[in-house]
Structure formats: C-alpha cells, structure tokens
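Worked Example 4.2. Consider the chain below.
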Amino acid sequence: MSRTASIFTPSAIFTSNLQSLMAEYPALEARVISHAASRFYQVQLVLEAAGEEEEERSELLMKRGKPMLFRSLEDVYSELKRGGMSRAWLVSQVANDEMIGRPPQYHQPLSSRIPLSF
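Applying the procedure from the previous section yields the following structure tokens:
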C-alpha cells in the first residue's frame, strides 16, 4: 500500500489531523455533502489519483470514531477553516432522479457541484 493510500483509513481523517494532512497533501479536496431529505451536512475528503495505477481515495471527516454531522454550512466553514482549508465543493444529493429511473446526477461531479469559498 502506498503512503498516500495509508492515510485514508476510517480512523485517519479526524478533525485533529486535518491541518497536517492539508500541509502534506495540498491537492486534498473537501466535498460538503447535502442530502435533500436531511438538514445535515457531511464532509468528504478526497485525494485524486496520482497516476493510472492508483485510485481516488475518499473518507468522511470523523470525530471520536464517527462521521461528523454539521447543522449548517457556517459550521462546516468553521471546521474546515480551523483545518487550514479555504475552499470546498457543495454536492447536493437528490433522490428524484433515482426514483424516476434515471441515473443519479451526483456521480457526475462537474454537473452537480457548487464551489464554496470561505
């Protein structure tokens, strides 16, 4: 397992080590996931594949061994700022497409992401 792959384990992406990950991997991308049926947000951290032999790695931001839930975008901004990030993508997941038999649009990142700067 490569060094890049080793940081992406379920216990590795905690708020306490986000700042050190940002310093080591400046290409780390934050995706703020919004579910249509929920008022909560989650943060998914993604490291793009470096080469063709590697895959994209992603994990949810964790705290005390559980995925973090945020009640507002302002809470997300505060946590990501504390970790040294200044931008993210808002990904809205709406089940409407799936309900009517179309493929979900959130798997197409360019058509379903909104840039956030804070």
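Helices lie at 3-7, 18-24, 73-82, 96-99, 109-112. The two ends are 34 Å apart (CA to CA). Compare this with Example 4.1 before moving on.
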